[in-house]
Amino acid sequence: MTMFYETQRAMRNMRKAAMQRGVVAVLDVGSSKIACLVLRFDQVGDAPGDGVGSMAGQAGFRVIGAATTRSRGVNFGEIEAMPEAERAIRTAVQAAQKMANIRVDHVIACFSGAGPRSYGLAGEVDVEGQAVSEQDISRVLAACDVPDYGEGREVLHAQPVNFALDHRSGLNDPRGQIGNTLSTDMHMLTVDSVAVQNLVHCLKRCDLELAGIASSAYVTGVSSLVEDEQELGAACIDMGGGTTGISIFMKKHMIYADAVRMGGDHVTGDISMALQIPMSHAERIKTFYGGVVATGRDDLEKIELKSETGDWNHDRREVSVAELIGIMRPRVEEILEEVRYRLDAAGFDHLPSQQIVLTGGASQIPGLDGLASRILGQQVRLGRPLRVHGLPQAATGPGFAATVGMCLFAAHPQDEWWDFDLPIDRYPARSLKRAVRWFKDNW
């Protein structure tokens, strides 16, 4: 944890340095596509103290380069074939650099998968002076009791989601306010460390410096949920190719994140196996004719399944749209049922608002919002990412929600644990190491 804390601080410093130079790239490493956007920053706000979150000034930016390529070597949101993933990332980054006509050395990346787990932490300290200072924030964050999240896990996000000063709760930024006792609630998200290390190593092989890393579920919620939904409580379901990301927001902070290891590629795989056609042909049929709600007319509409096997009867088959829907619907229902299970486990029913927003490439299946409202709840809508300056029209669809969210994350990052100088003796697991060192030195 201590090493990762220092690594995250170093990445934040690199991000600020890249923004000072004016150009940084964001990279969405997905299972179906790899997208890269090059951002140019107009001005960077200077903030008092070390915090670089929403209180630390605003940065205006514009997209000056954009490129996407088919993902290779990535499965379930994790890199499984390093050379292929490296080639795909190089292709996307070089194409975006060519469009922007500028070289980029620093990238901020996001990825899905890696088995995310959420934890709620709480800490409380007495305020040292009359008013809450930056050091008091550091001490109360260090006072949070970190659970044993297991070997081989790393903390990806550690965000204070609520502060309370004496009996006043719901404070976003207590700095400068007068009180005696300061407490905080923090959301911590851990992921499989091997997945993070593989991504970092892959970017190094591409001659790129990692200036930030984020969960795809988090940045998708930032870009797809409107301000009222983030404030009152809403869930964002990012239906990608290999995974379906889940994030719950409340009071403009993410309070829960998870992922289901199923997505649109699994629907395509079902079509490919059922109809005995290549995956590329199955993807085309799903895009043009797919759906999850059959009508009486779908029995009459036929789809030609052209292939090149040499068997005339096999190459000239036809299937009705109703049969295609019958193949797709069970898998989509399975994904939504799994999402419903995760939302129930997170206590989503207890939020004052149960708004659910569907986004991601697989959310564009016709009729999905109606099916989702029956399985997940009544308040379901299809979401698109916010518009940002310079974004090409082709990159404004639901499939680019995570990519656009990375732009907003780069420009206006939320305060996290490593944005503050934590007391060195209160690092998690540090006291045990100090005790062992003392024992070795004195015995």
Automatic annotation (TrEMBL):
GO terms for biological process: FtsZ-dependent cytokinesis. Its main location: membrane. It is found in: Cell membrane. InterPro entries: ATPase_NBD, Cell_div_FtsA, FtsA/MreB, SHS2_FtsA. GO terms for cellular component: cell division site; cytoplasmic side of plasma membrane. It is a peripheral membrane protein. Gene3D superfamilies: 3.30.420.40. The keyword Cell division applies. It comes from the Bacteria. Cell division protein that is involved in the assembly of the Z ring. May serve as a membrane anchor for the Z ring. Belongs to the FtsA/MreB family. Self-interacts. Interacts with FtsZ. This is Cell division protein FtsA. The gene is ftsA.
